[in-house]
């Protein structure tokens, strides 16, 4: 999978991709991530990428021209499955959407900033608008990093244990069951006996029951 990220703050985005699972995915050649600094697509001496909004009002708006240059240049090189705009008024990211996006070959992610982007960018280029939750961030970069993490860990070969993404919370609209590791007794706090029994069919059944009980208690909305 190839991900092209368009941003005015590439430095804010690079570090999550240089650690742990995401860096391993890059090293294994499973994902390629490219950052494009919007300022590199301006002609003006001040490398200005934003301007005041027509009609007045507080806040700057990202201009269409550098975004057009960047996206059009990328589109000349290859076909993109989705051109995503990170924005608080987009569709809220969930596991189902991450699963869908993980099936794509090439995606572009445009990070909004200030008051957002000129509406004509959204009308002409954007195929999907995604929010990571009902709160406003200072830009789309952290949202894009969250989105990339959720998608990249699903790509085949990224996680060591191939089944582990399938047993994540939300994969069946259920929260994951509780997990334990050594020691079996820590200061009198004991691991449930069943997990030490070696009776795997029973353990599997217990995990299913726990997942359902947890979901009913903590996130009943998922069961509707
Ligand atoms: N940009 C600003 N706030 C955002 C949010 N909640 N999700 C995605 N992008 C954003």
From TrEMBL:
It is found in: Cytoplasm. It comes from Euzebyella saccharophila. The gene is trmD. GO terms for molecular function: tRNA (guanine(37)-N1)-methyltransferase activity. Residues 1-224 form the tRNA methyltransferase TRMD/TRM10-type domain. Specifically methylates guanosine-37 in various tRNAs. NCBIfam families: PRK00026.1, trmD. Belongs to the RNA methyltransferase TrmD family. Its EC number is 2.1.1.228. GO terms for biological process: methylation. It catalyses: guanosine(37) in tRNA + S-adenosyl-L-methionine = N(1)-methylguanosine(37) in tRNA + S-adenosyl-L-homocysteine + H(+). Keywords: Cytoplasm, Methyltransferase, S-adenosyl-L-methionine, Transferase, tRNA processing. Homodimer. S-adenosyl-L-methionine binds at residues 112, 132-137. It comes from the Bacteria. This is tRNA (guanine-N(1)-)-methyltransferase. It is an enzyme of class 2 (transferase).
């Amino acid at each position: 999978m190839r991900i092209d990220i368009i941003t005015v703050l590439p430095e804010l985005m690079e570090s999550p991709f240089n650690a742990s699972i995401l860096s391993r995915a890059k090293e294994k050649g499973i994902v390629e991530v490219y950052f494009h600094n919007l300022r590199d697509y301006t002609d003006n001496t001040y490398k200005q990428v934003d301007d005041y909004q027509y009609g007045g009002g507080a806040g700057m708006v990202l201009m269409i021209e550098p975004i057009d240059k960047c996206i059009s240049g990328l589109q000349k090189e290859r076909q993109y499955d989705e051109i995503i705009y990170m924005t608080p008024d987009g569709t809220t990211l969930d596991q189902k959407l991450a699963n869908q996006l993980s099936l794509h070959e090439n995606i572009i992610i445009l990070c909004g900033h200030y008051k957002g982007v000129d509406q004509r960018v959204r009308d002409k280029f954007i195929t999907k608008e995604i929010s990571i939750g009902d709160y406003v961030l200072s830009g789309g970069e952290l949202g894009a990093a969250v989105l990339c993490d959720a998608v990249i860990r699903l790509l085949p070969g990224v996680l060591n244990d191939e089944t582990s993404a399938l047993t994540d919370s939300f994969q069946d609209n259920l929260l994951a069951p509780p997990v334990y590791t050594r020691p079996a007794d820590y200061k009198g706090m004991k691991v449930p006996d069943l997990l030490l029994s070696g009776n795997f069919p029973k353990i599997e059944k217990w995990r299913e029951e726990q997942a359902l009980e947890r979901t009913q208690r903590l996130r009943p909305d998922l069961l509707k």
